[in-house]
From TrEMBL:
<protein>
    <recommendedName>
        <fullName>DUF2490 domain-containing protein</fullName>
    </recommendedName>
</protein>
<dbReference type="InterPro" id="IPR019619">
    <property type="entry name" value="DUF2490"/>
</dbReference>
<feature type="signal peptide">
    <location>
        <begin position="1"/>
        <end position="19"/>
    </location>
</feature>
<keyword id="KW-0732">Signal</keyword>
<dbReference type="Pfam" id="PF10677">
    <property type="entry name" value="DUF2490"/>
</dbReference>
Length: 278
């Protein structure tokens, strides 16, 4: 126990000492996230899925701008192949996902545009919890992001014309671990349910290992049909961004209105349905 206390104090001291060399800034930004999942289930244990995510954002003005549809933020297309290993365990792979991200640091700076390619293996374990269920999801994102503004510079996948430092950081792995709780409202027959989840993430590359972000989600959903459902929720995205040049550490909170739509084919299948967004 004494050793545990020592480790905790040491870590806190290390973070405090590091923070003293940076100017700390807290930023809040309202955003809009949407996701549509289309799923085709076979009679056996295989299923195929395509999800599309579309996100927009307000100006980064500390809630002075509340128009969450004002500026583009991100668009994603991601296919999935899943296999139901056992009733609670499902293995999934997204063989290639495409990301387009826009950013506008301030009203005085131009909009930038970045591209990214990802390959994503995933493990999902679903357990009953009363009349609801707990979902444990473990995901590894193999990411090849562009390192420059691709409006002005061409994005070259696996480029060999850059410095070793740039190449080392171009490829990274983001590790994600999510716990999701789903509970029906007034029984499953009503079609209504609530859902909450928390998901910390960590980035690992050749040159760095760091906390990336944490997402906390709370939503209410409605099963319109056996194969169709919608959700409306709030998502909080917390991240820490370091500016090494200006020595600024930004604690960023994105506050998202989240809309989710799920549709699968009508078929008796050994494959389970997907539990929720992202």
């Amino acid at each position: 126990m004494r050793h545990s206390v020592f480790v905790i104090v040491f870590l806190l001291f290390g973070f405090t000492a590091s923070a003293q060399s940076y100017q700390n800034v807290v930023r809040h930004r309202p955003v809009f996230w949407s996701e549509m999942n289309l799923v085709f289930k076979t009679k056996g244990k295989w299923s195929f899925q395509l999800d599309h995510q579309y996100r927009r954002q307000a100006e980064d003005t500390q809630f002075r701008d509340l128009n969450i549809f004002r500026l583009p933020l991100q668009q994603v297309f991601r296919p999935w192949i899943s296999y139901q290993l056992t009733k609670p365990v499902r293995l999934s792979l997204s063989p290639i996902g495409l990301w387009w991200t826009w950013n506008r640091p301030s009203e005085f700076q131009p909009t930038t545009f970045f591209q990214e390619i990802r390959v994503i293996p995933q493990l999902t374990i679903t357990k009953p919890a009363g009349d609801g269920e707990l979902v444990y999801r473990f995901r590894s994102e193999l990411r090849w992001p562009s390192r420059t503004d691709t409006l002005a510079n061409e994005y070259v996948f696996l480029s060999d014309g850059e410095s070793q430092q740039v190449l080392a950081d171009r490829f990274n792995v983001r590790l994600r671990a999510m716990l999701r709780w789903i509970k029906p409202i007034r029984g499953k027959e009503s079609g209504w349910y609530v859902q909450s989840s928390v998901e910390p993430m960590m980035v690992v590359s050749r040159s760095v290992r760091r906390f990336d972000q944490n997402r906390t989600y709370l939503a209410i959903g409605r099963r319109l049909r056996e194969n169709m459902r919608v959700e409306l929720g709030y998502l909080n995205q917390f991240s820490i961004q370091n500016n090494e040049v200006e020595r600024i550490r930004t604690f960023r909170f994105n506050h998202a209105l989240h809309v989710y739509f799920y549709l699968e084919n009508r078929r008796t299948s050994k494959a389970s349905s997907d539990s929720g967004p992202e």
